[in-house]
């Protein structure tokens, strides 16, 4: 708790901001993050003897510089400054201040990070699981295989419904970002693993007396599996395969793209499979048919056996 001569009047503005944010329905997680960010700003303001929030842009930049001096990484600084910009914008919009001193506040430059991905050998080790013997083991095998076979985002994977399986075409109907739908093929080995999982899935629901579910991947209560659960399952599988532990489900998506590209698949075709938002321009000039896409995929994917 920040204390001091100026803490009370300054804190009143922050408290009013939090109350309005809660009234607008921000999530508890967001509210906690905003509280922590603005506590840092309040501490800086009190130590700097700010009389109120009517300060200059230079004064606010002093807070941004202090974040860097504390050794916070650029991503953390950017999150805090985003909260600060939102707070000062709210102060200005509600006429608590005459000018917004944070309107020109910029985030620190973010370092360029190469996306993590597995080598083909690591991918094979991760997917070389013992034969599935029950619902949990078949589910793990299937979700890992589909992540690597189709390059799905984890949110897209858990969002799949049974009706999205076009098994005759070995294709998934995927709802991606911006609710854009795309069709993504999967290879024959993935089809066998998927069929086995569907058998265990049906037996699992029947044995538990659970009602039918539209979701493809289920948790132990018969509900839809969550992205958090998928990440936990992947961590366990990585440890069992003695593969680098700091790899997310998204790394399998990057591995999918990298390995196909290394094996000669056209980059535009890979972008079609991934459903990148940046494809809007490319799609105006390139129209790959599903049959052509599937043939190219079968030729290029490391685990596709034709």
Automatic annotation (TrEMBL):
Q: Which InterPro entries match?
A: CB (IPR044068), DNA_brk_join_enz (IPR011010), Integrase-like_cat_sf (IPR013762), Integrase_catalytic (IPR002104), Integrase_recombinase_N (IPR010998), Integrase_SAM-like_N (IPR004107), Tyrosine_recombinase_XerC/XerD (IPR023009), Tyrosine_recombinase_XerCD (IPR050090)
Transmembrane helix in keyword set:
no
Gene3D superfamilies cross-referenced by the UniProt entry: 1.10.150.130, Intergrase catalytic core (1.10.443.10)
Name the catalytic site residues. Answer: 153, 177, 250, 253, 276, 285 (o-(3'-phospho-dna)-tyrosine intermediate)
The record places domain Tyr recombinase at 113-298
UniProtKB keywords: Cell cycle, Cell division, Chromosome partition, Cytoplasm, DNA integration, DNA recombination, DNA-binding
Which CDD domains does the record associate with it?
INT_XerDC_C
**Per the database record, which ranges form the Core-binding (CB) domain?**
8-92
Pfam families, sorted? Phage_int_SAM_1, Phage_integrase
Q: Give the UniProt subcellular location, in the record's own words.
A: Cytoplasm
Give the similarity note. Answer: Belongs to the 'phage' integrase family. XerC subfamily.
| Primary role | Site-specific tyrosine recombinase, which acts by catalyzing the cutting and rejoining of the recombining DNA molecules. The XerC-XerD complex is essential to convert dimers of the bacterial chromosome into monomers to permit their segregation at cell division. It also contributes to the segregational stability of plasmids.
| The protein's assembly and partners | Forms a cyclic heterotetrameric complex composed of two molecules of XerC and two molecules of XerD.
| Protein name (Swiss-Prot/TrEMBL) | Tyrosine recombinase XerC
